[in-house]
Amino acid sequence: MPHDPHDPHDPHDPHDPHDPHDPHDPHGSHDSHDSHGLGGAAFGSDPGRNPLPVPADPLGRWLRAVALGGQGRYAQARAELEPLRRMSATEPAVASLAASTQASLLRQLGAHALASGYDGAALALIGMTRTGDRWWHEARCDALTGLAADALGCGRLALGRTLLVRCEAYLSAVGEPDTLWRQYVRLHWVTAEIALAAGDFAAATVHAQAAVDRSADCPSVRHRIKSELLFAASATGRPEPDLALETAERVLVDAGAHGLLPLRWAAAMLVDGVRPDPAARAIRDECADAIARRGGRFSK
């Protein structure tokens, strides 16, 4: 299942800024870019907005890349991300977030081992002390959950769980559950995915529901839809397929309505997997073709 291209990710967001009128404040919030529509596109109510404005500052470029990744515009997202770590104006936390987002894009296409190099670099850029502002906290958690998702994709579930425990402990120590809502949602996503990989549908359902509940109060449409998708996947462990099918079909519609191509592709696969459906397969294939045209190449 695709991870959020910060979900990025995967991810994966508006915060109260130190200066709500300064769009170049590197320690402010994603809301500071809403005048350009970037906060709303990356982590808000308008994830399908296209075309997107091109900002001059590194933080804005990262937000633009997140939005482009959510739409499945992989080539454009990479073009925004790749220069960020080389730009002298890029704060370490933003460079780290950019590296984690590059990893998320790779995971969506099945390249988990390659993604782990980017997530490792993301963590190295900012270290594991608890110093820094919310950007540093976000970046550390994104790197840890990204590494856990990479480990999952490489079949190393125990390592994935260990990394998630580190992330959970970090979040508990920081103590900013409202500010770091995206990091909590991502933590539940990857915990649910590891549980699914282990065949533990009960644990997967608990964490998928927790992601649904937390994302219900967040500004990000994309995070709400991704959480519903994980809940649908978790519901496939039930004796009857109705809940999984109904939820996945709703995700299919919602992802299409908001221009979230990777999530629509994943939902179509899930619908067809629960109950074979030629219409869902056609949507899956259409999405895969569109993803390829936008620069996404699935790993074999």
Task: Characterize the structure shown.
The chain has 300 residues and is an all-alpha fold. The protein has a single domain, classed as Serine Threonine Protein Phosphatase 5, Tetratricopeptide repeat. Helix content is 63%, strand content 0%. The protein has helices at 38-43, 58-70, 74-81, 92-108, 112-126, 134-153, 157-174, 181-197, 201-216, 221-234, 242-257, 261-274, 278-293. Helix 7 packs antiparallel against helix 8 and helix 12 (261-274) packs antiparallel against helix 13 (278-293). The longest helix is centred in the middle third of the chain and has 20 residues, at 134-153. The radius of gyration is 18 Å and the shape is globular. The model is unreliable at 1-33 (pLDDT under 50).
Summarize the structure.
The protein has 13 helices and no strands. It has helices at residues 38-43, 58-70, 74-81, 92-108, 112-126, 134-153, 157-174, 181-197, 201-216, 221-234, 242-257, 261-274, 278-293. The relative contact order is 0.12.
Number of domains: 1
Beta-strand residue percentage: under 5%
The value of Rg in angstroms is: 18 Å
Helix content: 55-70%
Largest sheet: none
Low-confidence stretches: 1-33
The N- and C-terminal alpha carbons lie at a distance of 15 Å
Task: Note the main attributes of this structure.
single chain; 300 residues; mainly alpha; Serine Threonine Protein Phosphatase 5, Tetratricopeptide repeat; 13 helices; globular; disordered N terminus
Give the arrangement of secondary structure elements.
Blueprint: H1 38-43, H2 58-70, H3 74-81, H4 92-108, H5 112-126, H6 134-153, H7 157-174, H8 181-197, H9 201-216, H10 221-234, H11 242-257, H12 261-274, H13 278-293
Helix pairs in contact: 2-3, 2-4, 3-4, 4-5, 4-6, 5-6, 6-7, 6-8, 7-8, 8-9, 8-10, 9-10, 10-11, 10-12, 11-12, 12-13
